[in-house]
Amino acid sequence: MPAGLRLVQPSEHRVMPWKNGFGTTTEIAIDPADADVGGRFRWRLSIANVQRSGPFSAFLGYERTIMVIAGHGMDLAIADQPARRLDRLFDPLVFSGDSTADCRLLDGPICDFNLMVERSSLRSHLEVLHLDATPRLLGPTSGDRIIHCFDGAIEFVMGAGARVGTLQPNCTAILDPARDEMQLAAAADHRATVAIIELTPA
Protein backbone atom coordinates (compact mmCIF):
# COMPACT_ATOMS: atom_id res chain seq x y z
CA MET A 1 0.00 0.00 0.00
CA PRO A 2 1.23 3.54 -0.72
CA ALA A 3 2.32 5.62 2.28
CA GLY A 4 -0.61 7.28 3.99
CA LEU A 5 -3.21 4.80 2.71
CA ARG A 6 -5.04 2.56 5.15
CA LEU A 7 -7.70 0.00 4.23
CA VAL A 8 -10.37 -0.89 6.79
CA GLN A 9 -12.03 -4.29 6.39
CA PRO A 10 -15.44 -5.20 7.86
CA SER A 11 -13.67 -7.57 10.27
CA GLU A 12 -12.15 -4.48 11.89
CA HIS A 13 -15.50 -2.81 12.57
CA ARG A 14 -16.61 -2.49 16.20
CA VAL A 15 -20.25 -2.88 17.30
CA MET A 16 -21.19 -0.88 20.38
CA PRO A 17 -24.27 0.57 22.09
CA TRP A 18 -25.35 4.11 21.39
CA LYS A 19 -24.10 6.75 23.77
CA ASN A 20 -27.69 7.11 25.08
CA GLY A 21 -28.33 3.33 25.09
CA PHE A 22 -31.24 3.41 22.59
CA GLY A 23 -29.58 1.39 19.82
CA THR A 24 -26.34 0.00 18.41
CA THR A 25 -23.71 1.42 16.10
CA THR A 26 -21.10 -0.28 13.93
CA GLU A 27 -18.02 1.90 14.17
CA ILE A 28 -16.06 1.80 10.91
CA ALA A 29 -13.18 4.03 11.98
CA ILE A 30 -12.33 6.74 14.49
CA ASP A 31 -9.42 9.19 14.71
CA PRO A 32 -7.31 8.87 16.73
CA ALA A 33 -7.63 5.09 16.52
CA ASP A 34 -7.54 4.62 20.30
CA ALA A 35 -10.19 7.28 20.99
CA ASP A 36 -13.38 6.52 22.89
CA VAL A 37 -16.66 7.83 21.51
CA GLY A 38 -17.51 8.96 25.04
CA GLY A 39 -14.45 11.23 25.03
CA ARG A 40 -12.89 13.49 22.42
CA PHE A 41 -11.99 12.50 18.86
CA ARG A 42 -11.26 14.28 15.57
CA TRP A 43 -13.67 12.32 13.41
CA ARG A 44 -15.72 9.14 13.45
CA LEU A 45 -17.41 7.10 10.74
CA SER A 46 -20.16 4.62 11.60
CA ILE A 47 -23.37 2.87 10.54
CA ALA A 48 -26.31 2.81 12.95
CA ASN A 49 -29.09 0.22 13.07
CA VAL A 50 -32.21 2.13 14.10
CA GLN A 51 -34.85 -0.35 15.26
CA ARG A 52 -37.34 2.07 16.80
CA SER A 53 -38.23 5.72 16.98
CA GLY A 54 -36.55 7.80 19.66
CA PRO A 55 -33.86 10.35 20.48
CA PHE A 56 -30.35 10.47 19.07
CA SER A 57 -27.33 10.96 21.31
CA ALA A 58 -25.95 14.49 21.63
CA PHE A 59 -22.34 15.18 20.61
CA LEU A 60 -21.41 18.66 21.78
CA GLY A 61 -18.80 20.36 19.61
CA TYR A 62 -19.30 18.05 16.62
CA GLU A 63 -20.83 18.51 13.18
CA ARG A 64 -22.82 15.52 12.04
CA THR A 65 -23.61 14.24 8.55
CA ILE A 66 -26.24 11.51 8.34
CA MET A 67 -27.92 9.66 5.47
CA VAL A 68 -30.24 6.69 5.23
CA ILE A 69 -28.65 3.76 3.38
CA ALA A 70 -31.33 1.06 3.90
CA GLY A 71 -35.01 1.07 4.85
CA HIS A 72 -37.90 3.43 4.21
CA GLY A 73 -36.52 6.43 6.06
CA MET A 74 -37.38 8.62 9.00
CA ASP A 75 -38.56 12.03 10.06
CA LEU A 76 -35.78 13.77 12.00
CA ALA A 77 -36.70 16.66 14.30
CA ILE A 78 -33.61 18.75 15.15
CA ALA A 79 -33.87 21.26 18.01
CA ASP A 80 -36.98 23.41 17.54
CA GLN A 81 -37.04 23.13 13.75
CA PRO A 82 -39.78 21.32 11.80
CA ALA A 83 -39.00 17.65 11.21
CA ARG A 84 -36.98 16.84 8.09
CA ARG A 85 -38.09 13.81 6.10
CA LEU A 86 -35.19 11.56 5.13
CA ASP A 87 -36.76 9.00 2.81
CA ARG A 88 -34.25 9.04 -0.07
CA LEU A 89 -31.29 6.73 0.15
CA PHE A 90 -27.80 8.24 0.10
CA ASP A 91 -29.09 11.81 0.57
CA PRO A 92 -26.87 13.43 3.26
CA LEU A 93 -28.08 15.89 5.88
CA VAL A 94 -25.68 18.03 7.94
CA PHE A 95 -26.61 19.25 11.42
CA SER A 96 -25.02 20.26 14.71
CA GLY A 97 -24.35 17.55 17.27
CA ASP A 98 -25.09 20.19 19.92
CA SER A 99 -28.80 20.05 19.02
CA THR A 100 -31.34 17.59 20.31
CA ALA A 101 -32.49 15.21 17.57
CA ASP A 102 -35.46 12.83 17.62
CA CYS A 103 -36.30 10.37 14.86
CA ARG A 104 -39.64 8.85 13.90
CA LEU A 105 -39.32 5.80 11.66
CA LEU A 106 -41.61 5.90 8.63
CA ASP A 107 -42.03 2.17 7.99
CA GLY A 108 -39.80 -0.16 9.95
CA PRO A 109 -36.11 -0.21 10.88
CA ILE A 110 -33.44 1.64 8.92
CA CYS A 111 -29.65 1.81 8.64
CA ASP A 112 -27.99 5.19 8.49
CA PHE A 113 -24.45 6.25 7.68
CA ASN A 114 -22.89 8.75 10.08
CA LEU A 115 -19.92 11.08 9.93
CA MET A 116 -18.96 13.20 12.95
CA VAL A 117 -16.15 15.76 12.91
CA GLU A 118 -14.79 17.97 15.67
CA ARG A 119 -15.96 21.44 14.66
CA SER A 120 -13.00 23.26 16.20
CA SER A 121 -10.42 21.39 14.12
CA LEU A 122 -12.07 20.07 10.92
CA ARG A 123 -14.44 20.87 8.09
CA SER A 124 -16.06 18.01 6.19
CA HIS A 125 -17.84 17.37 2.91
CA LEU A 126 -19.57 14.11 1.97
CA GLU A 127 -20.56 13.24 -1.59
CA VAL A 128 -22.09 10.01 -2.91
CA LEU A 129 -20.98 8.77 -6.33
CA HIS A 130 -22.72 6.12 -8.43
CA LEU A 131 -19.88 4.69 -10.52
CA ASP A 132 -19.71 2.66 -13.70
CA ALA A 133 -16.67 1.61 -15.73
CA THR A 134 -15.91 5.21 -16.72
CA PRO A 135 -13.11 6.54 -14.45
CA ARG A 136 -13.89 9.47 -12.16
CA LEU A 137 -11.04 11.80 -11.28
CA LEU A 138 -10.57 13.12 -7.75
CA GLY A 139 -8.08 15.95 -7.42
CA PRO A 140 -5.49 16.28 -4.67
CA THR A 141 -6.43 17.84 -1.35
CA SER A 142 -4.49 19.22 1.60
CA GLY A 143 -6.57 17.20 4.04
CA ASP A 144 -7.65 13.61 4.53
CA ARG A 145 -9.91 11.68 2.17
CA ILE A 146 -12.10 8.73 3.09
CA ILE A 147 -13.72 6.44 0.50
CA HIS A 148 -16.37 3.97 1.64
CA CYS A 149 -17.83 1.39 -0.76
CA PHE A 150 -21.49 0.54 -0.13
CA ASP A 151 -22.13 -1.88 -2.98
CA GLY A 152 -20.42 -3.21 -6.07
CA ALA A 153 -16.63 -2.90 -6.02
CA ILE A 154 -14.31 -0.13 -7.12
CA GLU A 155 -10.79 -0.04 -8.52
CA PHE A 156 -8.65 2.96 -7.69
CA VAL A 157 -5.54 4.37 -9.29
CA MET A 158 -3.26 6.93 -7.65
CA GLY A 159 -0.51 9.29 -8.70
CA ALA A 160 1.39 8.20 -11.81
CA GLY A 161 -1.26 5.68 -12.83
CA ALA A 162 -0.36 2.59 -10.85
CA ARG A 163 -3.39 0.51 -9.93
CA VAL A 164 -3.59 0.34 -6.14
CA GLY A 165 -6.31 -2.22 -5.64
CA THR A 166 -10.00 -3.02 -5.39
CA LEU A 167 -12.30 -1.79 -2.68
CA GLN A 168 -14.97 -4.36 -1.88
CA PRO A 169 -18.44 -3.67 -0.39
CA ASN A 170 -18.36 -2.36 3.20
CA CYS A 171 -14.63 -1.62 2.94
CA THR A 172 -13.07 1.78 3.50
CA ALA A 173 -9.92 3.51 2.24
CA ILE A 174 -8.43 6.31 4.36
CA LEU A 175 -5.80 8.58 2.80
CA ASP A 176 -3.83 10.83 5.13
CA PRO A 177 -3.36 13.25 3.42
CA ALA A 178 -4.63 12.83 -0.17
CA ARG A 179 -1.92 14.78 -2.02
CA ASP A 180 -2.16 12.78 -5.26
CA GLU A 181 -4.86 12.61 -7.87
CA MET A 182 -7.03 9.49 -7.83
CA GLN A 183 -9.18 7.73 -10.38
CA LEU A 184 -12.12 5.59 -9.33
CA ALA A 185 -14.19 3.22 -11.45
CA ALA A 186 -16.53 0.31 -10.84
CA ALA A 187 -14.68 -3.00 -11.11
CA ALA A 188 -15.44 -5.77 -13.63
CA ASP A 189 -18.08 -3.84 -15.60
CA HIS A 190 -20.29 -3.57 -12.53
CA ARG A 191 -21.78 -0.51 -10.88
CA ALA A 192 -20.84 0.74 -7.46
CA THR A 193 -22.02 3.25 -4.87
CA VAL A 194 -19.38 5.02 -2.80
CA ALA A 195 -19.13 7.87 -0.32
CA ILE A 196 -16.29 10.35 -0.82
CA ILE A 197 -15.46 12.30 2.33
CA GLU A 198 -13.08 15.26 2.34
CA LEU A 199 -11.69 16.44 5.70
CA THR A 200 -9.84 19.76 5.78
CA PRO A 201 -8.44 21.83 8.65
CA ALA A 202 -10.87 24.33 10.17
Concise summary:
It is built from no helices and 19 strands.
List the helices and strands and how they pair.
Elements: E1 5-8, E2 14-17, E3 24-31, E4 43-50, E5 54-55, E6 62-70, E7 74-78, E8 84-86, E9 93-96, E10 101-105, E11 110-118, E12 122-131, E13 136-138, E14 144-151, E15 154-158, E16 162-167, E17 172-175, E18 182-186, E19 192-201
Antiparallel strand pairs: 1-17, 2-3, 3-4, 4-11, 5-10, 6-9, 6-11, 7-8, 7-10, 12-19, 13-18, 14-17, 14-19, 15-16, 15-18
**SSE pattern, N- to C-terminal:** EEEEEEEEEEEEEEEEEEE
The first-level CATH class name of the largest domain: Mainly Beta
Residue stretches low in confidence (pLDDT < 50, at least 5 long) are none
CATH superfamily of the largest domain: Jelly Rolls
Structural class: mainly beta
- Classify the fold: give the CATH topology of the largest domain: Jelly Rolls
Kindly state the mean pLDDT as a whole number?
91
Through-space gap between termini = 29 Å
Q: Strand order, biggest sheet?
A: 2-3-4-11-6-9
User: Could you give the count of β-strands?
Assistant: 19
Helix segment tally: 0
What overall form do the CA principal axes indicate?
globular
The major beta sheet can be summarized as: 6 strands, antiparallel
Q: Compute the gyration radius: what is it?
A: 17 Å
* CATH level-two architecture of the largest domain: Sandwich
Q: Can you describe this structure?
A:
A 6-stranded antiparallel β-sheet has the order 2-3-4-11-6-9, with no helix packed on it. Helices cover 0% and strands 55% of the residues. It is globular, with a radius of gyration of 17 Å. By secondary structure, it is mostly beta strands. It starts with a strand and ends with a strand. It folds into 2 domains: 10-118, Jelly Rolls, CATH 2.60.120; 122-201, Jelly Rolls, CATH 2.60.120.
